[in-house]
Design a protein that fits this description.
Elements: H1 2-8, H2 17-27, H3 33-40, H4 44-73, H5 80-89, H6 96-106, E1 145-148, E2 151-155, E3 158-167, E4 173-179, H7 184-197, E5 205-208, H8 212-215, H9 217-225, E6 229-232, H10 242-255, H11 266-282, H12 294-302
Parallel strand pairs: 1-5, 5-6
Antiparallel strand pairs: 1-3, 2-3, 3-4
């Protein structure tokens, strides 16, 4: 029996410390630790130190695998802050600095934004509303502040226009419309969907830029009929509508820029926009929402 132990737990120099520790750990259930350490030539302190280091490496591997999984599942959209929050949501108590170091080491870089902007401004063609928001975008409750704008997708010469409404409470997309033409029909459909879901909007501030459609009399009358206060950015001040600027930047970076080849047809692009907005509302967590998605944050806040 002693020879058997010696053959497995040799103290030969060519056997690494880690190998000896692995053998000792395997045989501990059958033989006293003191004998195994004596035969292997391991000091007790060295054995326990190496064992703890191995356990730590195993835990790091689990975290590394989780980081890669989260990064891939979210299509390379998450940076280290959002991945840290998602790890915590899954029960891993890990520091954001550690996540950052691991991501740098693995070469995991989130998609970068491409700055190209569509503008629907055509001069003063109707009534210009005052800026009631003044860059104070946040709201303490849903349906207190809404934001809208339009953006253009150019898919190999074929253009698609997206017109959404965002809630200042949680950044949730309240409603939206995709169209081949940026017209009043698109805006009316967006409003119809929003008003069908939200009936009591009295006192709501609805902010936009000075695009022609928001100056149109029919648009302004619909807001007035629902007790909504219209607000507009100052001319040439895109950051006055910064909430929409930020949303469009995120959306295009995460599902369109440098990914155009994924969409063979116009319908493919429309479906991708639909899928992304659903993902954005229900699954994409935000740092400012305490690691929750917009919908989950709203639901939790209502309890």
């Amino acid at each position: 029996m002693l020879k058997k132990i010696e053959s497995r737990c040799s103290s030969k120099e060519e056997s690494t410390t880690e190998e000896k520790v692995n053998v000792v750990s395997e045989l501990r259930l059958e033989y006293p630790l003191v004998i195994l350490l004596q035969i292997s030539g391991l000091a007790k302190s060295v054995y326990y130190y190496t064992l703890s280091k191995t356990d730590k490496d195993d835990k790091n591997k689990e975290i590394i695998d989780k980081i890669k999984e989260i990064f891939i599942n979210n299509k390379e959209r998450y940076g280290y802050r959002r991945i840290t929050l998602e790890l915590r949501n899954q029960g891993y108590n890990v520091n954001h600095k550690k996540v950052y170091r691991i991501m740098v080491k693995l070469g995991l870089k989130p998609l970068k934004r491409n700055k190209r902007k569509y503008s629907s401004y055509k001069g003063t063609v109707g009534k210009i509303a005052d800026n009631l928001i003044e860059r104070d975008f946040n709201a303490d409750k849903p349906n207190k502040k809404w934001y809208t704008d339009a953006t253009e997708f150019n898919l190999r010469g074929e253009k698609c226009y997206l017109s959404p409404i965002l809630d200042g409470f949680n950044g949730e997309v309240v409603s939206y419309n995709t169209s081949k033409s940026p017209n009043l029909e698109q805006i009316n459909d967006m409003l119809n969907k929003a008003f069908d879901k939200n009936t009591n909007l009295d006192g709501l501030i609805f902010h936009s830029d000075q695009g022609w459609q928001y100056q149109h009399q029919s648009y302004q009358q619909r807001l007035k009929n629902n007790g909504i206060k219209q607000s507009m950015s100052r001319k040439g001040n895109s950051m006055d509508n910064g909430m929409m600027e930020n949303f469009f930047g995120i959306l295009k970076t995460e599902m369109f820029y440098d990914q155009e080849d994924n969409y063979k047809t116009f319908d493919d692009l429309i479906k991708a926009i639909d899928d992304y907005i659903n993902y954005y509302n229900y699954d994409r967590i935000k740092v400012k929402l305490k690691g929750l998605s917009p919908v989950n944050y709203r639901l939790q806040s209502s309890n």
